[in-house]
Automatic annotation (TrEMBL):
EC main group: transferase
The species this protein was found in: Nocardioides dokdonensis FR1436
Top-level taxon of the source organism: Bacteria
Any single Pfam family the record assigns to this protein: HisKA
Gene Ontology MF annotations: calcium ion binding; histidine phosphotransfer kinase activity; phosphorelay sensor kinase activity
Name used for this protein in its record: histidine kinase
Regions crossing the membrane: 12-33, 45-63, 75-95, 107-126, 138-159, 171-192, 201-222, 234-252, 273-290
SUPFAM superfamilies: ATPase domain of HSP90 chaperone/DNA topoisomerase II/histidine kinase (SSF55874), Homodimeric domain of signal transducing histidine kinase (SSF47384), PYP-like sensor domain (PAS domain) (SSF55785)
Keyword Cell inner membrane carried by entry: no
Domain spans labelled PAC: 422-475
Gene it is expressed from: walK_1
Reaction it catalyzes: ATP + protein L-histidine = ADP + protein N-phospho-L-histidine
Organism lineage: Bacteria, Bacillati, Actinomycetota, Actinomycetes, Propionibacteriales
Primary site of residence: membrane
EC number, as in UniProt: 2.7.13.3
Chain ranges of the PAS domain: 350-400
Length: 720
C-alpha cells in the first residue's frame, strides 16, 4: 500500500533540503573537478560523486514510488531500479578495475545500457494515460521523426568519429549506449512536451536529467573515440548532474499520486510541430553543412531548407487551425454540459419538491426512477424501487384478491398503446402491505427524435384523506336527510291538508302561498330522497331485487309515469314496442332510472316536440333508448353531468326544478346491475340516452344479435 504523499509543508521542506544538498554537492564537485588536483585524485572524487549522486537518485525515486499509485508508482520504481543498476555497475567497475576504468569497462557499460533500457521503460510508464489511437500514432511518429533526426545529427557529428576510431571503442560504449541515449533523449523530450497537469515540473526534471545524462554520454563516446577521455574532468559533472536532477524530481511536491488523465493540452500541436520540424531542420542543416564548407549555400542545400521549413510552417498552420476548431468545439460542449447540468438540477428540484408521487418505467414496466414523495408514499427508500416491475410490486390485486392483469394496466397501455390515462382511481400496496387509494395520471415517454416510446411516467396522489372527507360528508348528508325527512313529511302533509281545504276555503293569496310551499316541500322531499338513494348506492347498501322483466313493460310503465309531465309540457311521448328481450333488473329501480332519463328529455325539449322510447337487443344486452330533439348537451359535459349536483347550466336548477342528482343516481343504479348508461348528444339537435342491461334468457325466443336494428313497429327508431 502506498503511504500517500506527505503534507504540503513537509514536502516543501524536503524539496528545499534536497535542492540545497544537490546544489552543494554539485558545486563542491565542480570546484574539485575543475581544480588543479592530480588526475587520479580527481578520478576518485568523480567516482565518489557518481556513487553519492546515484545513491541519492536511487533512494529519492524509491521514496517517491512509495507515495505514488498506479502507473506513476511503477514509473518511479523502474527509475529507482535504473539508478540502482547504474550505481551497482559503477561500484562494481570501480572495485574490479582502477578508478579510471569506470564507465569504460564491459561491466560498467553493460550496467549503464541496462539502466538506460530501464529508464526508457520507466518513461513509457510515465506516459500511461488513455489516449486516442490517432493521438498515440502521432506521438509514435513524432518519436520516429525526432529520433531519426537526432540520429542523423549524431551520425554526422559523432558516429563518423566513432567509426573512425576503428576497434578501439567497445560495441557497447561506442554504438549501443549512444543509440540508447538518443532514444532516451527522444522519449524524454516527447514526455516533456506531452505532459500537463500537477506533476509536470517533476516530470520536466526527470526529462532534463536524462537529456543532461545523454549529452554527457555522447560527449564521452566522442572523447573515447578520439582517445582524449580522462575520467575526473568537468564532463563527469554531466552524469552527476543527471543523477541529481532525478533526485530533485523525486522530491518535487505533488498534489496527486497518480495521473489517470492529463489536463488540457491546448496549443500542444503548435509546440509539437515546432519541435519536430525544428529538430528536422537542424538535422538537415547539419547534414548540409557536414557536406563540406564549399556547399554551405548551394542551391540544393537551400532547397532542402525551404522544403523542410515550408512543410513545417504549413503543418504549424494546420495545427493552429485544428486547435481553434477544437477549442470552439470544446467551448460548445462545455456550454451544453453546463446547460444540461442546470436542467438536470432543475428537474431534480422539481421532482423532489412536488408532493405527488412520480415514477418512470422502461418498456418492461421496470421502475427507472421515483421521486422522494413517491418512494415515501410507497414505503421504500428513494433508490429502493429502481429496477423492480412497478405493476408486480405495488399494484394492488382486485377486490377478490386476484392479481390485476398486466395487459389491462395503464402502465402497459401507456407504453404499448401510447394511451394517456388521466384521473383514474386505483389501489397501491405499500412496502408493509397496506393498501391505499390513489389517483393516477399515466403518460407514455416518447423520444422526440425517433418518435419511439421509451417507457412511461406515472404521477400518483394518495387520496386516502380525500376519500375520508367524502365519506364523512356523505354520512353527514345522509344523517341530515334522514332527520329532515320526518318533519318534512309532516309539513307536506299539513300543507296538503290546508291546500285541500280541510280547514275551509283559504283566501286567494293564502291559497297560492300554500300551493307554492307545497310544491317546494315536495321538491325538497325528492331531493332528500335522491340524496339518501345516492348514499345507499355509494355505500353499497342499495338492496336490489333482481328478476327477469319484460323490456316493453318496463318502458310502458315509465312512459305512463311520465305522461303527466309530458302533457304539461306539451311534449309527445312515442314508444316503440316489440323488443323480444327480457332483462334481469330490479323493477322499481330501473323504472326510476328510466323516468329520470325521460323526465330530462321532456324538460329539455321544446313544447310540441317528440320524445321517442325504444329498446333493442345488442349482443347479449338489451339497450333502452330515450331520444329527444331538445337543446342538446355540449360534448365536454356529456360525462361530467353524471357527477353529483352537476348541471349543464346553473339556471337548470331554477327553471326545471332539478338538483343535478338524477343522472348520478341513474348511473349508480344501472352500474349496480352490471349495466351501462351514457348519453349521446348534439347541441340544438337533440340527445339520446342509452341504458343497457344484460338480457335474461327468454324462454322460447331466440335472442338474435341485432346490433343497431330497431325491433319495433311504429315510428322508426333512431339509430344512435
Ligand atoms: P336534474 O335533471 O335533476 O338537474 P340530472 O342529473 O338528471 O339532474 O341532470 C343533470 C343535468 O344534465 C341537467 O340539469 C341538464 O343540465 C343536463 N341534462 C340531462 N339530460 C338532458 C337532456 N336530455 N337534454 C339537455 N340537457 C340534459
Amino acid at each position: 500500500m502506498p503511504s500517500g504523499p506527505p503534507a504540503a509543508r513537509r514536502q516543501l521542506v524536503s524539496l528545499v533540503v534536497a535542492a540545497v544538498v544537490a546544489a552543494g554537492l554539485f558545486l563542491v564537485l565542480w570546484a574539485l573537478l575543475s581544480s588543479s588536483l592530480a588526475l587520479s585524485v580527481r578520478g576518485s572524487i568523480s567516482v565518489l560523486g557518481l556513487v553519492v549522486a546515484g545513491a541519492l537518485a536511487t533512494a529519492s525515486t524509491a521514496i517517491r514510488a512509495r507515495w505514488s499509485t498506479g502507473g506513476r508508482r511503477r514509473a518511479w520504481r523502474l527509475l529507482s531500479l535504473a539508478g540502482l543498476t547504474a550505481l551497482v555497475g559503477n561500484v562494481l567497475a570501480a572495485l574490479l578495475g582502477d578508478p579510471e576504468s569506470v564507465g569504460s569497462s564491459p561491466v560498467g557499460d553493460a550496467a549503464i545500457a541496462v539502466a538506460l533500457l530501464l529508464s526508457i521503460a520507466s518513461l513509457t510508464w510515465f506516459t500511461q494515460v488513455n489516449r486516442s489511437r490517432v493521438d498515440l500514432a502521432v506521438m509514435a511518429l513524432d518519436g520516429v521523426i525526432l529520433g531519426t533526426a537526432v540520429l542523423m545529427i549524431a551520425a554526422s557529428l559523432v558516429y563518423d568519429q566513432l567509426l573512425a576510431s576503428g576497434g578501439s571503442v567497445s560495441l557497447l560504449a561506442g554504438t549501443v549506449i549512444p543509440i540508447l541515449d538518443v532514444v532516451l533523449a527522444t522519449v524524454a523530450l516527447i514526455l516533456l512536451r506531452r505532459t500537463r497537469g500537477p506533476d509536470r515540473v517533476a516530470l520536466g526534471l526527470v526529462a532534463a536529467g536524462f537529456i543532461v545524462y545523454t549529452m554527457t554520454d555522447l560527449g564521452y563516446a566522442v572523447r573515447i573515440a578520439a582517445g582524449t577521455f580522462d575520467f575526473g574532468s568537468v564532463l563527469d559533472l554531466g552524469w552527476i548532474g543527471g543523477y541529481l536532477l532525478l533526485a530533485l524530481a523525486a522530491w518535487w511536491p505533488t498534489r496527486v499520486t497518480d495521473v489517470s488523465r492529463e489536463d488540457g493540452v491546448a496549443g500542444a500541436e503548435d509546440w509539437d510541430t515546432a519541435v519536430v520540424f525544428g529538430v528536422l531542420l537542424v538535422a538537415t542543416m547539419v547534414e548540409v553543412i557536414g557536406d563540406g564548407p564549399g556547399r554551405l549555400l548551394s542551391i540544393e542545400a537551400l532547397l532542402w531548407l525551404v522544403l523542410i521549413g515550408g512543410a513545417g510552417v504549413r503543418q504549424g498552420l494546420i495545427a493552429r487551425d485544428n486547435r481553434h476548431l477544437r477549442q470552439s468545439l470544446e467551448d460548445q460542449v462545455r456550454e451544453r454540459t453546463a446547460d444540461l447540468r442546470q436542467m438536470g438540477r432543475e428537474t431534480e428540484v422539481l421532482l423532489s419538491s412536488v408532493a405527488d408521487g412520480i415514477y418512470g418505467v422502461d418498456l418492461e414496466g421496470r421502475v427507472t426512477f421515483v421521486n422522494p414523495s413517491g418512494a415515501e408514499m410507497l414505503g421504500y427508500a428513494t433508490g429502493g424501487l429502481a429496477g423492480m416491475v412497478a405493476h408486480d410490486v405495488f399494484h394492488a390485486p382486485d377486490a377478490e384478491g386476484r392479481p390485476f392483469p398486466f395487459d389491462a394496466c395503464y402502465i402497459e397501455e401507456a407504453v404499448r398503446s401510447r394511451v394517456v390515462t388521466n384521473g383514474e382511481e386505483d389501489l397501491y400496496v405499500r412496502a408493509d402491505g397496506d393498501v391505499f387509494p390513489v389517483e393516477i395520471t399515466a403518460s407514455p415517454l416518447v423520444d422526440d427524435d425517433t418518435g419511439e416510446v421509451r417507457g412511461g411516467v406515472v404521477v400518483f396522489r394518495d387520496v386516502t384523506s380525500r376519500r375520508e372527507v367524502e365519506r364523512v360528508k356523505n354520512e353527514f348528508l345522509s344523517v341530515v336527510s334522514h332527520e329532515l325527512r320526518t318533519p318534512l313529511t309532516s309539513i307536506r302533509g299539513s300543507l296538503g291538508l290546508l291546500s285541500g281545504g280541510v280547514l275551509g276555503a283559504l283566501p286567494e293569496q293564502a291559497a297560492s302561498m300554500v300551493d307554492r310551499a307545497l310544491v317546494s316541500s315536495e321538491r325538497l322531499t325528492r331531493m332528500i330522497n335522491d340524496i339518501l338513494d345516492l348514499e345507499r348506492i355509494e355505500s353499497g347498501n342499495l338492496a336490489l331485487e333482481v328478476q327477469p322483466h319484460d323490456v316493453d313493460e318496463l318502458l310502458a310503465i315509465a312512459d305512463r309515469e311520465m305522461s303527466g309531465l309530458a302533457a304539461s309540457r306539451d311534449v309527445r311521448l312515442v314508444r316503440s314496442t316489440g323488443c323480444p328481450g327480457l332483462v334481469l333488473a330490479d323493477h322499481d329501480r330501473i323504472v326510476q332510472s328510466l323516468t329520470n332519463l325521460i323526465g330530462n328529455a321532456i324538460k329539455f325539449s321544446a313544447p310540441g316536440s317528440v320524445v321517442e322510447l325504444d329498446a333493442r337487443l345488442v349482443g347479449d344486452d338489451v339497450e333502452m333508448r330515450v331520444r329527444d330533439r331538445g337543446r342538446g348537451i355540449p360534448a365536454d359535459r356529456l360525462e361530467t353531468i353524471f357527477e353529483r349536483f352537476v348541471q349543464v347550466d346553473s339556471s337548470d336548477m331554477r327553471q326545471e326544478g332539478g338538483s343535478g342528482l338524477g343522472l348520478a343516481i341513474c348511473r349508480g343504479i344501472v352500474e349496480r346491475h352490471g349495466g351501462r348508461v351514457w348519453l349521446e348528444s348534439e347541441v340544438d339537435v337533440g340527445t339520446t340516452a342509452h341504458l343497457s342491461l344484460r338480457a335474461a334468457p327468454t324462454p322460447g325466443v331466440d335472442a338474435v344479435p341485432a346490433a343497431g336494428g330497431a325491433t319495433a313497429g311504429g315510428p322508426s327508431a333512431p339509430s344512435a
